[in-house]
């Protein structure tokens, strides 16, 4: 692409007072999507505490370095502390699993059978497995916290395929609409209070809800009109049926592939089908997108560093997901039942996990 | 060129056409002001130009429209968006994106423009409206005037030849409105863009307008001509024009500068024959009344009231009092603490320090519901108040809230012995008798405001507080509001107006209180406070400095004496 200079991201302008949003993300949004996908793959594939700890460490590193540096938006509401949330999830999940699943050899103590659900032996295995599941949830939360911090809402919306451009616009409006609605609620509450309204029971909500709905309706109509005046039109009748067909084929392939891997133990064929399905879906979206001609203002530039982030993510995902000749992946599938054992650790998988840390080194 | 040829348009479900056999030719490159009472079809006419009528609204259209050779009915608004930019009334309701730059690019993205060209266009548009310093700002952090300028920029991004604006300043304070109107004047004179603007604030734009398009609502003829010709034929106009017509100043002055030439010679003649009174023709009488009043206790009183939001002090040790039978205008810049002070008088916000008394009793610890039986409060947006099915029901809701209504024969009535206004009489007074069974939200802006007033004053409060009551009102609705408030004042009500509208304060206020940075900086007769201020002086005070006259009526009264 020519004129790349023109399109490179510009850092937030320090002169503008009150500017809160970083104008453009530093790492390309698509690269972030790859990174999050790899994190999801790793977290959902393994229950081995070594690998889980390693993945969590990578997420934490990225969160600390990037989350601070390119804070995309001032958090609207104070963010929940990742560490505190993680601890709560791990502890709750561990206790809950121990109370509910009475399987395993190492019995810690026994609750009387008379207690429904909770009664029975409480085992160390169930406790450990619950904690591991908690770690996975904490990891997911941390990964999405990273995304939330590094990408402005607009950048995320741009990821929506062109076929869904109208839907993306609607989402963008919803994002801006919500705070206005809250403001409205406050005004309405005051207006009703000064005519002696007190909140009692369900019926007394009517004076608050009716003006809110009516007001929102009126504003939506105004917005729709404004959008029309600026050349926004929903798609005309679509004579082209190919995208729908492709999408159907893609979905069938995806589901079959997934079943192949999981149920019929055919990982290679299954993975092939998954890949084919994803390709079909992708081309369906591209085809459908042609029916909504529009362009993107200042598209985010693609840097070499983005390529590195993507490559790292793919490496990690591939090792976790696919069988490779000469690689013993059995250590991934750690399972504490029926008796707790020391988990194994394969250094190759460990090294591959480091691929998730690449965003840290992007300047 | 825009040409309307026997255009008749009826909204879906409407009995009468909104536009009836309109034939017009609007030349290119001019700044055209569209005026007329609400309901005269201004918005409808403007929306025919880019095809929003009938494409968005539906309904039946007959006749022909041609905009630069295009037929907006056959072509779609999407095609017309390249020829016609459109700006709406409420700056908040027309934004799609959340940042200035993205908002401007939205129309370009829809037109599938190449990224390189788009980049250039956005930069040019930013410069055109002086928005460069704001380009990265989230829209919600902008002021009203800045937002409306972004909306204009967004409409201009496709470089249309015509810009149409439907009451772009009616939701803005005067300073922001002036910014917006100034940008329009510049766009028209520097770039030759045809501008059609529907607008209530005539005084700012009149000097720059090439033509006025007047739409009547009573079936009279549509007028389109140069401003002086049209203003001479119609009733509405800013005070300067009204005075000029009454005193037969020709050619009609449109600016204070033009008016001063007439007013000076007029004064010289007057001094020779009549000797008009010195400063404060109106004030001595009102002043005497105030002397009398002040022997009594004020109805509303704030003593050393202070208010903080977080670490920000909004109101700082304010003393403020209103006596029965007087109208006080509370004025000042945005953020001066006016609205906060007003809310503290009904207990919607509670002061950190100081006391508020109503009828001598402190309100601390009393519920808002109880306070507001004695003090009515009209919020800025009357829509937030209305939710019932009929106008009559709105009043009954308030009565039921206060336990002042009882049910007889399945119908709610004012409870016997309750302290409340007679609903029928109140509606008559508010000129809503024939709308008693109408759905409040279907009414015009002025009527909706009066319904809200009915819902508030049904409990016969001794004081009425109004927050920006003339926002969005046309001349006629404004005149009706002034008449109504005068009637209530004569009935002994204490009235407080928070307003930016200098002419309203000049016409109505007995006293003006000026606030700045949370403090009261002036409190006195309108002629003293407003007359001397370079910013707040009404047009008539500028024409006749040091005479104490504020409105056209003041001048004419002095002549008769």
Topology:
The complex is a heterodimer of chains A (363) and B (561).
Chain A: H1 4-7, H2 29-45, H3 49-69, H4 82-100, E1 107-111, E2 120-123, H5 124-150, H6 153-158, H7 165-193, H8 206-229, H9 242-262, H10 267-289, H11 304-321, H12 347-353
Antiparallel strand pairs in A: 1-2
Helix pairs in contact in A: 2-5, 2-11, 3-5, 4-5, 7-8, 9-10
Chain B: E1 2-10, E2 19-26, E3 31-35, H1 42-49, H2 52-55, E4 60-67, H3 77-80, E5 84-87, H4 100-110, H5 115-128, H6 144-156, E6 162-166, H7 174-191, E7 194-198, H8 202-205, E8 211-214, E9 223-225, H9 227-233, H10 239-246, H11 256-273, H12 283-293, E10 300-309, E11 312-322, E12 327-332, H13 338-346, E13 353-358, E14 361-362, H14 368-371, E15 375-378, H15 391-401, E16 405-408, E17 411-414, H16 423-429, H17 445-457, E18 463-467, H18 475-490, E19 494-498, H19 502-508, E20 511-516, E21 519-524, H20 526-529, H21 539-543, H22 552-560
Parallel strand pairs in B: 3-7, 3-8, 5-6, 6-7, 12-19, 12-20, 15-18, 18-19
Antiparallel strand pairs in B: 1-2, 1-4, 8-9, 10-11, 10-13, 13-14, 16-17, 20-21
Helix pairs in contact in B: 4-5, 4-6, 6-7, 10-22, 15-17
Query: Helical element count of chain B?
Result: 22
Mean pLDDT of chain A: 81
CATH class of the largest domain in chain B: Alpha Beta
Query: Largest beta sheet of chain B: what is the strand line-up?
Result: 5-6-7-3-8-9
Poorly predicted regions of chain A: 1-22, 74-78
- Fraction in beta strands of chain A: under 5%
SSE order of chain A, as H and E? Answer: HHHHEEHHHHHHHH
Number of strands of chain A: 2
Residues in helix, % of chain A: 55-70%
């Amino acid at each position: 692409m020519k004129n790349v200079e023109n399109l490179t991201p510009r850092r937030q302008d320090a002169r503008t007072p009150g500017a809160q949003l970083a104008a453009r993300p530093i790492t390309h949004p698509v690269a972030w999507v790859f990174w999050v996908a790899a994190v999801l793959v790793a977290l959902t594939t393994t229950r081995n505490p070594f690998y889980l700890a390693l993945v969590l460490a990578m997420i934490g590193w990225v969160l600390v370095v990037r989350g601070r540096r390119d804070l995309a938006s001032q958090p609207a509401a104070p963010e929940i502390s990742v560490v505190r949330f993680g601890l709560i999830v791990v502890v709750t999940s561990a206790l809950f699993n121990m109370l509910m699943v009475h399987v395993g050899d190492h019995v810690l103590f026994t609750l009387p059978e008379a207690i429904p659900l909770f009664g029975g032996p409480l085992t160390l295995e169930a406790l450990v497995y619950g904690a591991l599941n908690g770690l996975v949830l904490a990891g997911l939360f941390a990964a999405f916290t990273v995304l939330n911090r590094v990408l402005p809402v607009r950048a995320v919306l741009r990821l929506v395929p062109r076929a869904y451009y109208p839907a993306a616009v609607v989402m963008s409006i919803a994002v801006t609409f919500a705070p206005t609605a809250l403001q409205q609620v406050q005004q309405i509450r005051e207006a009703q209070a000064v005519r002696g309204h007190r909140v009692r029971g369900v019926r007394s909500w009517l004076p608050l809800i009716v003006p809110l709905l009516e007001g929102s309706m009126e504003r939506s109509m105004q917005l729709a009109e404004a959008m029309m005046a600026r050349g926004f039109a929903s798609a005309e009748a679509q004579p082209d049926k190919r995208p729908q067909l492709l999408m159907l084929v893609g979905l069938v392939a995806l589901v079959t592939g997934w079943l192949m891997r999981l149920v019929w133990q055919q990982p290679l064929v299954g993975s092939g089908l998954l890949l084919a399905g994803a390709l079909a879906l992708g081309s369906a979206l591209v085809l459908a997108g042609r029916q909504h001609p529009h362009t993107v203002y200042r598209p985010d530039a693609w840097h070499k560093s983005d390529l590195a982030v993507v490559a790292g993510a793919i490496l990690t995902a591939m090792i976790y997901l696919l069988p490779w000749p000469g690689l013993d992946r059995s250590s991934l599938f750690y399972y504490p039942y029926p008796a707790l054992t020391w988990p194994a650790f394969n250094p190759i998988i460990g090294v591959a996990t480091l691929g998730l840390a690449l965003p840290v080194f992007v300047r | 060129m825009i040409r309307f040829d026997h255009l008749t348009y009826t909204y879906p479900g409407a009995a009468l056409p909104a536009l009836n056999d309109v034939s017009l030719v609007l030349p290119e490159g001019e700044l055209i002001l569209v005026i007329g009472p609400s309901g005269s079809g201004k918005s409808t006419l403007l929306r025919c130009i880019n095809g929003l009528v009938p494409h968005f609204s539906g309904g039946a259209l007959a006749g022909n429209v041609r905009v630069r050779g295009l037929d907006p009915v056959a072509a779609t608004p999407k095609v017309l968006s390249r020829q016609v930019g459109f700006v709406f009334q409420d700056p908040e309701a027309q934004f799609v994106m959340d940042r200035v730059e993205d908002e401007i690019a939205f129309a370009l993205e829809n037109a599938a423009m190449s990224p390189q060209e788009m980049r250039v266009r956005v930069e040019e548009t930013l410069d055109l409206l002086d928005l460069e310093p704001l380009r990265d700002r989230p829209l919600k952090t902008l002021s009203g005037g800045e937002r409306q300028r972004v909306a204009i920029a967004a409409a201009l991004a496709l470089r249309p030849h015509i810009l149409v604006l439907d009451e772009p300043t009616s939701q803005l304070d005067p300073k922001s409105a002036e910014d917006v109107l100034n940008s329009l004047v510049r766009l028209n004179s520097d770039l030759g863009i045809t501008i059609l603007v529907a607008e209530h604030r005539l005084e700012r734009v009149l000097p720059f307008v090439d033509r006025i398009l007047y739409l009547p609502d009573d079936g009279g003829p549509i007028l389109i001509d140069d401003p002086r010709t049209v203003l001479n034929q119609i009733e509405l106009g800013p005070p300067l024009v009204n005075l000029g017509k009454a005193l037969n100043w020709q050619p009609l002055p449109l600016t204070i500068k033009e008016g001063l030439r007439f007013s000076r010679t007029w004064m010289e003649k007057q001094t020779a024959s009549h000797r008009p009174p010195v400063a404060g023709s109106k004030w001595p009488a009102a002043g005497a009344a105030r002397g009398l009043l002040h022997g009594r206790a004020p109805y509303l009183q704030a003593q050393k009231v202070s208010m903080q939001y977080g670490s920000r002090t909004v109101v700082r040790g304010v003393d403020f009092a209103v006596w029965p039978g007087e109208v006080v205008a509370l004025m000042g810049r945005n953020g001066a603490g006016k609205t906060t002070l007003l809310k503290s008088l009904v207990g919607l916000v509670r002061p950190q320090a100081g006391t508020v008394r109503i009828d001598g009793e402190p309100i601390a610890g009393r519920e808002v519901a109880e306070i507001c039986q004695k003090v009515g409060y009209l919020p800025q947006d009357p829509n937030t108040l209305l939710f019932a099915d009929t106008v009559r029901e709105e009043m009954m809701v308030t009565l039921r809230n206060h336990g002042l209504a009882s049910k007889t024969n399945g119908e709610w009535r004012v409870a016997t012995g309750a302290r409340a206004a007679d609903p029928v009489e109140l509606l008559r007074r508010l000129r809503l008798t024939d709308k008693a069974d109408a759905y409040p939200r279907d009414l015009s802006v002025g009527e909706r405001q009066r319904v809200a007033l009915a819902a508030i004053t049904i409990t016969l409060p001794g004081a009425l507080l109004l927050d920006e009551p003339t926002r969005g009102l046309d001349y006629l609705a404004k005149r009706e509001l002034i008449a109504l408030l005068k009637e209530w004042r004569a009935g002994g009500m204490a009235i407080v107006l928070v307003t930016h509208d200098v002419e309203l304060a000049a016409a109505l206020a007995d006293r003006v209180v000026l606030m700045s940075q949370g403090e009261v900086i002036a409190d006195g007769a309108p002629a003293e406070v407003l007359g001397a201020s370079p910013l707040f002086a009404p047009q008539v005070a500028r024409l006749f400095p040091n005479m104490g006259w504020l409105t056209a009526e003041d001048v004419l009264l002095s002549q008769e004496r």
